[in-house]
Amino acid sequence: DAPSVEDLLAALRAGVFEVVPAADGDAARRVALARALAAGAAQRQQRARSERLLADNAELSRVLHELREDEVAGHRIQQRILPASPQDFGWCRVEHRVKPALFLSGDFVDCFEVGDRCLAFYLADVSGHGASSAFVTLLLKTLGNRVRRELQRDSAGRRPSLLPTLVNRELLALGLGKHLTLCCGIIDFAARQLHWCMAGHYPQPVVFDGKCAHYLQGTGMPVGLFDDAVYEDRIHALPQGFTLLVLSDGAMELLGEGTLADKEARLLAIVQDGAVTVDALGRVLGVDDGRPLPDDIAMLVIRETDAVAGA
After folding, report:
1. Are the CB atoms for 238 and 194 separated by under 8 Å?
2. Secondary structure letter of residue 270 according to DSSP
3. Which residues have C-beta within 8 Å of that of residue 146, sequence separation ≥ 6?
């Protein structure tokens, strides 16, 4: 009827939910009992939710661990299929750099010799980011090797358009929902000519003769969107001691504010000021500043060596 304060505290410490004075009657006890049953049910539900959450978190941690392992494996594979950098072909030096915005890159570069004094190259930018785009670069490497064998069989041919034509057909047949842009070319050092092809790529390649840098003008359809796409081969005479630079559009996003025309002019000025190596371009663009990159970045630089320039 009249428990003491000490009795109440002892009861509450022992787990009593509510104390109802006897004088309050059965109605008060029924209300208190209903509250206690409801609280017990809520506790059981909360405990069940907590157990499910712990189980879900454990499963999520397992899946994330597997994804991380897959990303690490994919990153290693991407690094292994890239050509060596820098690489000397006897008559030129080729450097490249691929920097992903995430862990895996949708940008890709490759180069290889064709015949005695020709060098084939391409730089690709796959739509999107991450694993799905990175998987397309593996397909691109495989198709690039097929084109390489074709060019070796026909070393007199200078048709860089073979690559976008083949990749376009294969991507559309697979139905991956992915497309890409390509800049590809074949440098003929005997004729001092660049045979090149653009497939929706931006920015245009830059040619530097030691004094003045300029863009090669050309357009083309992206790869993997249109089954009737046609890719045109072009020819450009190369100056003595040239430097050829091919970048993905991610590099343009690091050139500050302004219109595309402003950024294009800024890039030419950077090249004319002497940033004609991958390391120099990376420093000027701030590729390794530690800030998050807005997009994957790929840079390919091909420079005629002094030995060839003086030959």
Report:
1. yes
2. H
3. 166
The token duo for 266 is: 């800024």
Rg (CA), the chain: 32
Any residues with CB less than 8 A from the CB of 115 and at least 6 apart, and which?
152, 155, 156
Structure tokens at 157: 């041919």
Q: 112 forms bridges with which residues in the sheet?
A: 120
- Residue pair 135/180 in contact by the 8 Å Cβ criterion: no
Q: What is the pLDDT of residues 71-130, one digit of tens each?
A: 677 777 877 888 898 999 878 899 999 988 877 788 999 999 987 788 999 999 998 776
Please check whether residue 296 is in contact with residue 240, taking contact to mean a CB–CB distance below 8 angstroms: no
Say if residues 223 and 193 touch (Cβ distance below 8 Å). Answer: no
Dump the DSSP string for 160-229.
TTHHHHHHHHHHHHHT-S--EEEEEEEEETTTTEEEEEEEB-SSPPEEE-SS-EEEPP---PPBSS-TT-
Compute the distance between CA of residue 251 and CA of residue 285 in angstroms, rounded to an integer: 7
Letter for the amino acid at 26?
Answer: D
Six token digits for residue 282? 């990376």
The DSSP annotation for 110-158 comes to: EEEEETTTEEEEEEEEESS-HHHHHHHHHHHHHHHHHHHHHHHHTTT--
